[in-house]
Amino acid sequence: VRLPRPLCVRTSVRTYFVCGSLLIIIAYLIYSSSVAAGAQSGIEECKYQFAWDRWNCPERTLQLSSHGGLRSANRETAFVHAISSAGVMYTLTRNCSLGDFDNCGCDDSRNGQLGGQGWLWGGCSDNVGFGEAISKQFVDGLETGQDARAAMNLHNNEAGRKAVKSTMKRTCKCHGVSGSCTTQTCWLQLPEFREVGYYLKEKYHKALKVDLLQGVGNSAASRGAIAETFSSISKKELVHLEDSPDYCLENKTLGLLGTEGRECLKRGKTLSKWEKRSCKRLCGDCGLAVEERRADMVSSCNCKFHWCCAVKCEQCRKSVTKYFCVKKEKRDGLCFL
Ligand SMILES: *[C@@H]1O[C@H](CO)[C@@H](O)[C@H](O)[C@H]1NC(C)=O
Ligand SMILES: *[C@@H]1O[C@H](CO)[C@@H](O)[C@H](O)[C@H]1NC(C)=O
């Protein structure tokens, strides 16, 4: 059996530590589909959170380890690591709660203990400890280097796992005579993954820059300096080493497309402030013009239920207006009709 790289590393989960051992193969077979599904949900969340940003989580920049490929170490890289690692932990935890694995179930380790004023731990808490341990094993295992970039990635992976823990919700049930709620039992539940996404987007805006790239070699002393620097930063915060490139512009070397041609949003009652400003952010501030394009959309409408059992719809046409970023000089040309 040829094992994938992530499994051939030391880890803090004692049982799975030797590359090539039977346990690793078993662990791999049991968890790999969940790990893959989790990483995918992280990427989907990244695309959702950044849909109206200049950088919109393009597939090409999503390399998850620091060896080979694109070795960027900016704020966006930090987010990608955090949300992927959170996605993996989230999915494993949810799988566990749904009974998908034989070796894990509810976290009832605190049941019976006093949690706070008037409530006890009880019920079935989502087992984040399990999700955390397995995801750490798989995701952190991708980092084999010992340089500042690897340390940055590990820090952000951890921040992602902390985000899942921090957004968990306490759910309670009342007890007492006819629901008088004199005592309650409570347990912790995972939130919707979207909430983890919003939480990490906030952390992204506040990400801390660490100045470590200059003058740090691979000596033991500099490895010590790297470790010391990262350990002084809260594990909940995202960190980066480099400034981001100009995402307005195309840069083939970095695999970036620039914002020309991107759609933006203008009107609409349901838009958030951030979305409403997307044309300014993606087009105007990048030296591009906004172009209005009308298109006819055909969709199902006036659907009626017929006895029994069919739904019949009409096809309705409606005109929709969309907005796109275009080069300024081309605005009056014929090429954009
Ligand atoms: C865990 O959940 C994910 C997503 O819901 C699913 O794709 C995957 O198959 C599950 N894993 C197992 C082992 O059931
Ligand atoms: C692409 O990005 C690299 C690294 O930031 C920079 O050195 C280069 O000048 C950029 N290229 C273009 C065409 O902007």
From TrEMBL:
GO terms for biological process: canonical Wnt signaling pathway; cell fate commitment; neuron differentiation; positive regulation of transcription by RNA polymerase II; regionalization. The chain crosses the membrane at residues 12-31. It holds the Pfam family wnt. The keyword Hydrolase does not apply. Keywords: Developmental protein, Disulfide bond, Extracellular matrix, Glycoprotein, Lipoprotein, Membrane, Secreted, Transmembrane, Transmembrane helix, Wnt signaling pathway. InterPro entries: Wnt, Wnt8, Wnt_C, Wnt_CS. PROSITE patterns: WNT1. It is found in: Secreted, Extracellular space, Extracellular matrix. One of its GO terms (cellular component) is extracellular space. Its main location: secreted. GO terms for molecular function: cytokine activity; frizzled binding. Ligand for members of the frizzled family of seven transmembrane receptors. Belongs to the Wnt family. This is Protein Wnt. It comes from Leptobrachium leishanense.
